[in-house]
Structures are given as structure tokens and as C-alpha cells.
Amino acid sequence: MNSDSEEDNLIETSSEYELSSSEDESEDESLESARNWFGVDVSVLTPAPPKFPFTGYPGIKVSLRQSDDPLDYFCLFFDDEVISFIAKETNSFAEEHFSNLELTPSTRALQWKDVTSEELKRFISLLILQGIVQKPTEKWFWSKRPILCTPFFGNVMNEKRYSLIMKFLHFQSRFRR
């Protein structure tokens, strides 16, 4: 390849360009160093990475009959271990929240009691059902007005408890990342 055309295709880097490993480097400096272009010799291509054959067998590893209940499929992903983990994290988050606040006697947070795995399953069922029975606002699911009434929601869980669980629903502690 012609050396003149190579020089035309190459963009020189700034002599000020240096990689800094210090943790105190500002975000602007990092951005600035990322914007510096450098030349690439296209006549010398790096070899492609090796291809490793896929040896796994894709798909669900559990045998479910065609007549099985949709709940069985749900439980494949949200088993008892996952549900109890979410309940534990939700309770921890609520406890952390309350310990950092001065609560007034009228606050609804005083009504909090730890969520159980069974209660969390009911909560998740209401979340899924809200995707099927759609209403403009969440409060309308618990409305007692005859034209809006969907009594199933209130029979499963009252609105205040649902709102409290929704407020503190948590999947991972900030301190265990």
C-alpha cells in the first residue's frame, strides 16, 4: 500500500494523550482521552478469535406436560427460594428506611409488618393481573364504585397494604453489591 495514502488515512494522536490509572481522574479527562483518535493499519488485520462449538442443549430442562397450569411455569422462574429472597430484601429495605426517619404518630409506615412469602405471591399475582385488567390509575383497582369495581383486588389484598409493599419492594441490598 502507498505510504502517502497510509499517512492520509492515519490520524495522529496528541502527544498529551496518556492513560491514567489514578482513581481521582475526573470524568471530563476520561472523556477527553476517549475522543483521541489513533491510526489503524488496515493491511495488517488481527486474526479472528477462535470459535468454540456450542455444546449445550437450549431450552427448559424441566419436563412439563401440555396440560400443566400456567402457575407451574411461573414457579419455574419464581420458586420458593426467589420469593423468600425478595421478601427478605423488601423487609430489610423497609427496616432500613424506618431506622433513618423520625416517624410521626400518623404515618402509615407504622402500619408496616414484615411481608411473608405467601403475601408476596399474592402481591405479584395482583401485579400480573393489572396487566390483564387495565385501568387508568392504580387506585381504581380497589374502587368500590359499581362502574369501576373489580372486587377481586380488594379480596386478595387491601389497597394500603399493596401500596406499602410496592413502596418497599426491593430485590438487592445497596450494601451487598
From TrEMBL:
Biased composition (Acidic residues): 1-10, 21-31
Region Disordered, annotated ranges: 1-32
InterPro entries for the chain: PGBD
UniProt-listed Pfam families: DDE_Tnp_1_7
Domain PiggyBac transposable element-derived protein: 69-173
Protein name: PiggyBac transposable element-derived protein 4
